[in-house]
Q: What sequence folds into this?
């Protein structure tokens, strides 16, 4: 299966969309403004919202710097993009492609980038037990966006980081839908575990989880290594120093945590060797 470029997004019907964002940060977590419009009862009205704030098309200083200071209930992870069916139909680009072209051809001939006003950025609330999707709307003077419920997940074009894993690109639509959903849920759970000491409400969230429903998470070291590998690859591809800043932040956090743990010197030594070794950088 061909590698999916970072500026492509894929929907459950195996249609590709060119997001026009070759320097997009993968697995981006941002704070949002909560309250109003999040009820699923209002989901059908989401497409009627007129929004000229370009919510999510770029990210404000507050959205990129206040992540660790925000409470867990106000954090969301960016999942993908939503293009209204009416906009897709106008272009006639996607019609029949999933049936007549190979996946490689679909990637090479995606639906063309739409105007910002026709595209909504899709997010998932980090603390939700299930994948309830919302779109970012109406960025306020405080730099934060509000949320509006999305009527159907089938309309979402997922970013490629959520398509990874066994059968992530299965020919069975329901199977890949389940896998993509599991990938997003796993990321949220692992993020909360890794940032439990800094994100407000994270410790309480972990403690309240039912013992009968254990979280399937990787170890802290595995999460850190995965995060560093992705950030390094993104920097090599985009040359954007924001990825290096993120790596430094994660390493400083890991150092602090390692100093408190038994066997910290061995753990930290392993991390440093991995980071400076060829495995990460090549």
A:
């Amino acid at each position: 299966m061909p590698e999916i470029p970072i500026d492509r997004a894929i929907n459950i019907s195996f249609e590709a969309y060119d997001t026009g964002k070759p320097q997009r940060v993968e697995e981006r977590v941002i704070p949002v403004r909560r309250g109003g419009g999040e009820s699923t009862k209002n989901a059908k009205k989401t497409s009627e919202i007129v929004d000229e704030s370009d919510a999510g098309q770029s990210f404000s200083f507050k959205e990129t710097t206040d992540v660790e200071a925000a409470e867990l209930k106000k954090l969301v992870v960016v999942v993908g993009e939503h293009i209204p069916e009416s906009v897709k139909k106008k272009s006639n680009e996607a019609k029949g492609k999933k049936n007549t072209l190979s996946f490689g051809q679909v990637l090479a001939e995606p639906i063309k980038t739409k105007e910002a006003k026709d595209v909504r950025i899709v997010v998932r609330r980090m603390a939700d037990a299930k994948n309830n999707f919302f779109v970012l709307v109406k960025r306020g003077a405080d730099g934060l966006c509000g949320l509006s419920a999305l009527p159907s997940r089938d309309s979402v074009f997922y970013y490629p980081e959520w398509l990874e894993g066994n059968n992530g690109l299965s020919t069975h639509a329901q199977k890949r839908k389940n896998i993509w959903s599991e990938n997003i849920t796993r990321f949220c759970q692992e993020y909360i575990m890794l940032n439990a000491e800094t994100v407000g409400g994270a410790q309480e969230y972990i403690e309240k989880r039912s013992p009968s429903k254990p979280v399937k998470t990787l170890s802290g070291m595995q999460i850190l290594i995965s995060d560093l590998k992705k950030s390094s690859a993104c920097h090599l591809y985009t040359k954007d120093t924001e990825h290096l800043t993120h790596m430094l932040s994660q390493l400083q956090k890991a150092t602090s945590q390692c100093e408190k743990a038994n066997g910290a010197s061995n753990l930290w030594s392993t991390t440093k060797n991995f980071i400076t070794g060829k495995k990460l950088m090549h």
Summary: The CA atoms of residues 262 and 268 lie 11 Å apart. Residues 8-192 form one domain. The chain has two domains: 8-192, 220-281. The radius of gyration is 19 Å.
